[in-house]
Amino acid sequence: MLKIYKNDMDNPKVTVCKEMEDNTWIRLINPTEQEIKMVSSKLNIPSSLISQVLVEKELPRIKQVDGATLVVLDVPYMKDKTIKNKYITYPLGIIICDSLHIVTVSLKEHEFMQEFANGEVDTFFTYKKNRFLIQISLKSSEYYLNTLGLIDEDIQKMEKNTYYSTSNRVLINFLNMQKTLVYFLTSLHANSLVLERLHSEEVFKMYEEDKILLGDAIIENKQCIEASTIYRDILDSTMDTYGSIISNNLNVIMKFLAGITIVFSIPTMISSFLGMNVPLGVLGESEFSFLIVCIFSFLISFFIACWLKKKNML
């Protein structure tokens, strides 16, 4: 999908363009080969600069070629709302062209990028290409933090369902969430290296405001790393704790079943003895013999149950 946006100081509202004019934002979302060739031909940049971002495992980095600079960042993406491991990271490529254009390339449509397209981001202008790159990094970090908050809510919900659980499914859900945090940490560390390089080497010209904004982006990214590390450590300890809880719950159930088996074996044992083909004396001649045997069996079972309960064995 190919979309073209533009705004400026005189017209701050972001509008959709039909042609690749100067100072426009060209947005490519899982583009076709024809769209890639058209953009690369129009902007005079290698088509490989676009296609290499369309690989799921593409790592964050900076690449400079004649006429353009490619910056790749990893951004979070919700891939499925029905499972616990519903978040993953995808590469987002930002190509700053010398021909007064900026191109973003991604496999998926990201929510925070849509905020730019809708004109919901303050001080966003398509002709300020370098600042746009930094703003994307900031928005990405904000989305990381929001996603981590949702993961924390999922962890708390799962904790409530684990106290009396004996199923491995809960631990598997915890494991899936742990994988998500590992993906996040790996991507955030890689993004940090990219931002640090932008700050130290000045890959492109930045004004003082841009440098301040880049500093904020670096701090925001570090906060995401710290938050992810904290949630990962919490999840590690939670998995160990609830693994023990699940094992203990299973032991409690087995103990209860063993106690119930003992209690109900008493009437069976008494009935077996009295059912033998031997004389029972007065008990066998009484018309209340069945009732007496039932009451006797019930009393013995009741006292044994009370004794097991007292010993915390039932």
Give a structural overview:
With 314 residues, the protein is α+β, with helices and mostly antiparallel strands. It folds into 2 domains: 2-248, CorA soluble domain-like (Beta Polymerase, domain 2); 249-310, no CATH class. It has 8 helices and 7 strands, in the order βββααββββαααααα. Strands 2-1-3-7-6-5-4 form a 7-stranded mixed β-sheet, with helices on both faces. β6 (87-97) and β7 form a beta hairpin. It is rod-shaped. The chain starts with a strand and ends with a helix.
Keywords:
7 strands; Beta Polymerase, domain 2; alpha+beta; 15% strand; 7-stranded mixed beta sheet; 314 residues; single chain; 57% helix
CATH architecture of the largest domain: 2-Layer Sandwich
Number of E-type strands: 7
Radius of gyration: 34 Å
N-to-C order of helices and strands? EEEHHEEEEHHHHHH
Largest beta sheet: strand ordering: 2-1-3-7-6-5-4
User: Would you state the CATH class of the largest domain?
Assistant: Alpha Beta
The shape is rod-shaped
List the helices and strands and how they pair.
Layout: E1 2-6, E2 15-16, E3 24-29, H1 33-43, H2 48-51, E4 61-65, E5 68-78, E6 87-97, E7 101-106, H3 111-117, H4 129-160, H5 169-201, H6 208-274, H7 282-285, H8 289-310
Parallel strand pairs: 3-7
Antiparallel strand pairs: 1-2, 1-3, 4-5, 5-6, 6-7
Helix pairs in contact: 4-5, 4-6, 5-6, 6-8
